[in-house]
Amino acid sequence: AFVPRTADGTDASPGAPSARLSPALKQATPIVVDHASGTWITGTDGRRYLDFTTGIGVTSTGHCHPRVVAAAREQVGKIIHAQYTTVMHTPLLELTEKLGTVLPTGLDSVFYANSGSEAVEASIRLARMATGRPNIIAFHGGFHGRTVAAATLTTAGTKFRSGFAPMMGGVHIAPFPYAFRYGWDLDTAVTFALRELDYLLQTVSAVADTAAFIIEPVLGDGGYLPTPPAFLDGLRERADRHGIVLIVDEVQAGVGRTGKFWGHQFSDSTPDVLITAKGLASGFPISAIAASTALMSTALPGSQGGTYGGNAVAAAAAVATLDVVEDEGLVENARLRGEQLLGGLRAIAARHDQIGDARGLGLMAAFEFVDDAGDADPGAALALQKAALDRDLLLLTCGALGNVVRIIPPLVVTRDEVELGLERIADACDAALGVRS
Ligand code: PMP
């Protein structure tokens, strides 16, 4: 078996990651995985963990779904890689056809990259080429990736952007309707954020200079905050009025996670550009950028693409993933198990003053922690994460202020697994937060 070693070559404690890994990384747990299946991860120390992190929604069909494994295995023996702009391969053609059946009407042209960040960058290039305008407006608390351009659009925490300025030019950040933070109802928050956006378009980023809005359907790393449908409708209306491209970043919320296939579908508004990654191939790196053929045609041929984008094994895994999502009814499962999960989380929240908000859309659920004064309490979020780990349950924190715990089971999670997870969360909350007297 693999034995993790510290920098001086001695054995690390069982399950501890190597001390040679850069401290620039933040290791949420000391677990070293040996193997995983469905909702379960088994460490090299033999411990079994209930995985409610799923690589932040990546292992959508669960760990090592047999059909995804079989598709990837078969593809490895046929062709691993051909740059698809040189030689096309069948898995990518199949994936393109399959995506055509799930993408919103009108988004009929697609290309591929490897990661969410690359897809974000590609969408920015596309919007700038399509409009001939420089500026991009993103929303406060958004997370769009770690490349410098994507990080410029990211305001989900200082660690994603501090210290490596200068950032990309032409980016402005507008308020997000974060009703809980303001202590407002949703309608008031939406009205405020849209008025602020109009003000920004009149004073800072003139319409004639604004190429795109980019928004997540649910703020992911920024705190698992669903974008209110009325806000998305407001963006759509302004995009239409001003000739601005509306980019929806479905990297974390897409492919069934919210209980709808795409997270933006809680609103009737359709984006001009949709980007997807994470859950698309159950763990293989691939992202897709979709837009209308007319919009895509404004791009210079050769301005998009890259060495590994649309890799054949990843594409085969993506086709299998989309087949599994359809055949096993996983969008509906996410909706039903999400309701079960949120019901249980709300009951737990009622027992602890520190849980200011329990929220969720499908299998994107979260607790937001506050102190007595109503301010963000990141310590409580970390304490819950640790208490859960002690109970063999994996959870992740998020939020621009680090005071949110996100709960992200795979789309295949069963009723019993949700129940077990809720029991462990309840127990961990009692241990980490105390029980109200
Ligand atoms: N957009 C969103 C909404 C994301 O959640 C992420 C990853 N957390 C990214 C973009 C960046 O994706 P990647 O890490 O694959 O570059």
Key attributes of the depicted protein:
seven-stranded mixed sheet; 36% helix; Class-III_PLP-dep_AT; alpha/beta; 437 residues; single chain; transferase; four-stranded mixed sheet; pyridoxal phosphate; PyrdxlP-dep_Trfase; 4-aminobutyrate:2-oxoglutarate transaminase activity; 3 domains
Describe the protein in words.
It is a single chain. The chain is built from 13 helices and 17 strands. Strand 8 (218-219) and strand 9 form a beta hairpin. The strands form 4 sheets. A 7-stranded mixed sheet has the order 4-12-11-10-7-5-6, with helices on both faces. Strands 1-2-3-15 form a 4-stranded mixed sheet. It has a 4-stranded antiparallel sheet with strand order 13-14-17-16, covered by helices on one side. It has 3 domains: 1-31, no CATH class; 67-327, Type I PLP-dependent aspartate aminotransferase-like (Major domain) (Aspartate Aminotransferase, domain 2), CATH 3.40.640; 329-370, no CATH class. It has helices at 54-57, 66-76, 90-102, 116-131, 148-152, 179-182, 186-203, 229-242, 293-296, 312-327, 330-349, 378-390, 415-433; strands spanning 33-37, 40-43, 48-51, 109-113, 135-139, 171-174, 210-215, 218-219, 225-226, 245-249, 273-276, 287-291, 355-361, 364-369, 393-394, 396-398, 404-407. Helix content is 36%, strand content 17%. The N and C termini lie far apart (48 Å). 4'-deoxy-4'-aminopyridoxal-5'-phosphate binds at residues 56, 115-117, 120, 143-145, 216, 220-221, 249, 251-252, 277. 4'-deoxy-4'-aminopyridoxal-5'-phosphate is lined by residues 56, 115-117, 120, 143-145, 216, 220-221, 249, 251-252, 277.
